[in-house]
Structures are given as structure tokens and as C-alpha cells.
Design a protein that fits this description.
This protein is mainly beta. Helices cover 0% and strands 41% of the residues. The radius of gyration is 15 Å and the shape is globular. It starts with 17 loop residues before the first strand and ends in a 7-residue tail after the last strand. The model has no long low-confidence stretch (mean pLDDT 94).
Length: 140
């Protein structure tokens, strides 16, 4: 139970961290993504002021995808944190609380469900985003 290492990030870590291939990826509510080795050594940090990451990062191949609460989705190079692409989610425009939940990786596609019942499909390779309206069982 003794502490081995600690990371003091720039904000709260709300989404669960991702551990993959010996690297820990964690995102904050202040728009930062950290990559650390298992010993706690910082490998890289990406930061975009004004964004708020609540969903857990998702790794697809060599791309790490993070989604901002307001709907901006960013693909990073998992090895060094370099931004590969960034796209807004059109159905989230003007909505500060759009993506609060973790995404789902299905084969090589990522899906997010927005707060107002849109299903967002993201191609992690190039950042193409498509949105679909999800209806409840009663047709609303």
C-alpha cells in the first residue's frame, strides 16, 4: 500500500485512465492528456486550453482518441502526443455538456452517445465524424 509515485495534473481526472502497451494515458477536465510509463515517468503531455475531457481516452492502433465534453474530438499520436487531427461534433455545437460518458470501441470505430441522444461515430484513422439521432422506444 505504499505510494510508489504520484502525478499532479493540471486538473481533475474524471474519466478512468487507459493502460495499454506499458503506457498509462489519463485526461483532465482542463484539457490535458498525460502519457506515463508504469513507473510514473512522464512520457509526454498534450494540452488544449478550454477543453474538458471527461470520457476515458481510447487507443486504436497508434492513435489515442480523446473527446471533449463540448464535442471536440482529437486524435493524438499515442507514441508522442502529437495532434493528428481535431474535429468538432456538429450535433454538439453550442452545447457545453454534450459528451460526458466513455466511448465504445467496436472493431476499429469509436462510438459516443451524446446527452441529447445522438450516436456519434468516429473513424480514428482520419477523424471523420458522423452523427445519428437515437429514438427512444416510444418514438420520441
Amino acid at each position: 500500500g505504499a505510494e510508489k509515485w504520484r502525478l499532479d495534473g493540471d486538473g481533475w481526472f474524471v474519466g478512468r485512465p487507459l493502460v495499454a502497451n506499458g503506457t498509462i494515458y489519463a485526461a483532465t477536465m482542463r484539457g490535458s492528456v498525460y502519457a506515463l510509463d508504469r513507473g510514473g515517468k512522464l512520457l509526454w503531455k498534450f494540452s488544449r486550453p478550454g477543453l474538458e475531457f471527461r470520457a476515458a481516452p481510447i487507443l486504436v492502433g497508434k492513435s489515442l482518441v480523446v473527446a471533449d465534453r463540448g464535442g471536440d474530438i482529437i486524435g493524438l499520436d499515442a507514441a508522442n502526443g502529437t495532434e493528428q487531427w481535431a474535429r468538432p461534433t456538429e450535433v454538439c455545437a453550442g452545447k457545453p455538456e454534450c459528451i460526458d460518458a466513455d466511448g465504445l470501441l467496436l472493431e476499429s470505430t469509436i462510438f459516443y452517445l451524446t446527452a441529447d441522444r445522438h450516436l456519434v461515430r468516429v473513424d480514428p484513422a482520419g477523424g471523420t465524424i458522423q452523427a445519428f439521432t437515437v429514438q427512444s422506444g416510444d418514438g420520441k
